Automatic annotation (TrEMBL):
This is CAP domain-containing protein. Residues 240-345 form the SCP domain. Residues 68-208 form the CAP-associated domain. SUPFAM superfamilies: PR-1-like. InterPro entries: CAP_assoc, CAP_dom, CAP_sf.
């Protein structure tokens, strides 16, 4: 799978049988005695790790954490029908609950069970932390490290986080099959949103550099019709999360503009099919020319683009932490938004409509 973001290159490192020798400075001619000592040392280290408690002192009482692994019947009983059910490219379905201002929740549903939750908004319950907490406050509850492991049967995986990852979207392992990805707004040093997931979801998204022994999940084969439904869901997610973020910063909410969405979709598709990444199309057209093709009137306009993020929430986080994209995202003048997603290419087109 591919997720080579425009700002982050996903590399997969595979180590062969020589890895043990290289890592510990041993050659193939090293003594058997030294190897025996090494194996015994590693066995003792593993026993020590297995016996160590994994954050047993953390009170996982927040409603968000309690939902992991629960059946959808309980979700419907407590929260009612979702506002939307959005397809994903990973086999699960997103159930979306939002008031489009103060809270937004996406529950990933697979085989009638919750396998991941994404949340943003001041009113979401994510005890023992809260949206808006500082990095220092959050790190007091979560252990953010440069390497995070996942074991799936005989296959093992180690995710390597760069310094930028640790700053913007650190990862914490809570148990053998529970992970927390914290998204930080680096301009305010505050927690902006959070994602809880099991190991399979983490491995499918692969948002970090990964070293592995075994195999990786195969890329899903999707029809054009399936992609169309997935893209519609992603577009609506980008729109909803945009308004949640604008509300947090006390900006006016934007309204959906279908004609502008067509322009945005056309640019996302053109970038994907023509294999480029730019605000300027290969024919030289910019946003001004693309809006003019559909005779869209406006007083001001702005555009955000992103590519190869695994889903809409991750693309939104990338924009929030990029100065130029952030300015468009939080511009008080904009009144309407059109979103276009084609496969894993994302375009936001903001406009300020003419007043009459």
């Amino acid at each position: 799978m591919r997720f080579l973001k425009s700002m982050f290159v996903l590399a997969v490192l595979v180590y062969g049988g020589s890895y043990l020798f290289d890592r510990y400075g041993l050659s193939a001619e090293g003594s058997i005695e030294k190897m025996v000592e090494l194996v015994e040392e590693k066995r003792l280290q593993l026993e020590s790790k297995e016996s160590a408690p994994q954050q047993e002192d953390i009170p996982w009482e927040g409603s968000l954490f309690e939902w992991m692994g629960k059946p959808t019947a309980e979700l419907e009983e407590q929260m009612g029908d979702p506002d939307r059910r959005d397809d994903s490219p990973y086999g699960y379905t997103w159930w979306v609950y939002t008031d489009q201002a103060s809270h937004y929740l996406q529950f990933a549903i697979e085989e009638q069970k919750i396998i991941s939750v994404y949340a943003i908004g001041k009113e979401v319950d994510i005890e023992p932390v809260s949206i808006g907490d500082s990095y220092t406050q959050v790190s007091e509850h979560f252990s953010f490290t440069e390497q995070v492991s996942y074991q799936d049967g005989l296959s093992s995986y180690t995710f390597h986080l760069s310094p930028e990852d640790l700053q913007k979207r650190p990862l914490a392992k809570i148990s053998d099959d529970l992970y927390v990805q914290a998204y930080f707004d680096t301009f305010t040093d505050q927690l902006s949103s959070i994602r809880i997931m099991n190991g399979d979801v983490l491995l499918t998204h692969r948002p970090y550099q990964v070293e592995y022994r075994g195999s990786l999940p195969e890329e899903p084969e999707l029809t054009d019709q399936q992609w169309t439904e997935i893209e519609k869901g992603m577009e609506q997610q980008v729109f909803d999360i945009t308004n949640i973020i604008r509300h947090q910063f006390e900006k006016s909410l934007v309204r959906w503009e279908e004609n502008v969405s067509e322009v945005a979709y056309g640019h996302s598709k053109d970038m994907a099919e023509q294999d480029y990444f730019s605000h300027t199309s290969l024919n030289g057209d910019g946003l001004k020319e693309r809006l003019a093709l559909l005779d869209i009137p406006y007083m001001a306009a702005g555009e955000n683009i992103a590519a190869q993020y695994p889903d809409a929430p991750s693309a939104m986080h990338g924009w929030l932490n990029s100065e130029g994209h952030r300015q468009a995202l939080l511009n008080e003048d904009y009144t309407h938004l059109g979103v276009g997603v084609y496969h894993f290419h994302y375009t936001q087109n903001f406009i300020k409509q003419l007043s009459y």
